[in-house]
Amino acid sequence: MKDRHDNPRDTPPEEFREQLHRLADWVADYRANLEQLRVAPNALPGSIQRALPSEPPNTAESFEKILADIDRIIVPGMVHWGHPNFLAYFGWTVTGPSILGEIITAPLNVNAMTWRTSPAATELEAVVIDWLRQWLDLSTEFGGVIYDTASVGVMHALAVAREEAAPSTRKFGLTSRGLPRFRVYTSDQAHSSAEKAAIALGLGEENVVRVASDSDFRMNVRALREAMARDLAQNLKPLAVIATVGTTSTASVDPIPEIAKVCRENNIWLHIDGAYGGGFALLPEFKSLTEGWAEADSIVINPHKTLFVPLDFSVLYVRNIERLRKVFTLVPEYLRGDTIEAEKNYMDYGIQLGRRFRALKAWVIWRSFGREGMVAFMREHLRLARLFGGWVKGSSDFELSAPISMGVVCFRFVAAPGSSIPDTKVDRLNSKIVEQVNESGNAYLTQTKLRGRTVIRIGLGNVLTTERHLRVAWDLIRETAHSLNGR
Ligand SMILES: Cc1ncc(COP(=O)(O)O)c(C=O)c1O
Question: Candidates 302, 306, 315, 405: which one to mutate for ligand 1, based on the most atoms within 8 Å of Cβ?
């Protein structure tokens, strides 16, 4: 934007105020009309990019014109993750307070790297991390740090595990003589962030050992012991176990106390991936989820999955957080002045220097709902998951593919039970059901593979999803299945 003397300038205050009011209406209208939109666009790949100018702008454009393009091109090209019929992943949600929290964060735009550069951001981060710790009933031995994602959390946890197992690594890297070949164990249901972390840390993707799970998709501890014994016999060094509370496909929960025992006996790191399921520990009836957590070295929780905070917001807790700081603290001269006399500089707890003020939005949301409000939402999601599961169980041509756990239901169209249709054909049919439902724009589902078979998967976690929306989705799934099967 330029004035008549060609000097650059920001938006004049009165004009900015008007734009903000317009934007407030835009946000409220979007939310009010969300349900009328297609959940997913019917755009062809490349069509959105083609509708946008490929050359960067040389001259200033008005906010009106930009907003008009958002309405004309961007919004119709979105999958609306906050739509009540978006049932993919873990049932994504957007809430009023979450939008307000994001909006307040924008004008502040601080860098939460050191206490000096952002005292309130640093101290509020400590506050919300400790609120969550209390809700999870974790002891004060656990300190935390906010990262963007659980994938980044597990990478940092394994970096500390490795430094403790091979103290020269921070200094000399992977060239240190005598560095053993480390092994990390996780179940065949665990998230791929385990391998990503191993890739990033130079541990090697192949050194993540996938341990078989039982019929309920929980890590088989006997198989874990056997895998470790095999590795030890070959001089491979067990480094860590990643146990999951709420696996990605079925939300199954590994037997943490038994796994913790194996870790203790072998003196290795226990990381708990509670990215999805950890948040359910807020519910007294899910208290048993936290059994064995006290024995963990690190625990990751994604409030952006379960606890109503918008992407991104993930907390890594480490028992004695000083262990994490020791591996990552590094103060360049130009930052020294801004690091003195501070109790905590969050830049010391990870590879990132620049850090968003993520704590603010969590603080706004958690105060707005309180624990009671969040628990009520979560109980409703659990009720909806069970209700949907009941519909599946009551139908003659669908079956549940896994126990219903938390807000996740995995099921499969089986045509006629016991029929002679080959499994591979049924797999294709289930994939096609998901594709066709998603193409309809009326609901959005995901598919996954369980024991080699394709299944349909839904997640309940959206505060806007009601029984009526779920019924629409179920009817659509059944109609689609029957019409595809009849062809
Ligand atoms: C169990 C589990 N762990 C970790 C992750 C990775 O989460 P993020 O996207 O925060 O890295 C996911 C993602 O869905 C997950 O389901």
Answer: 302
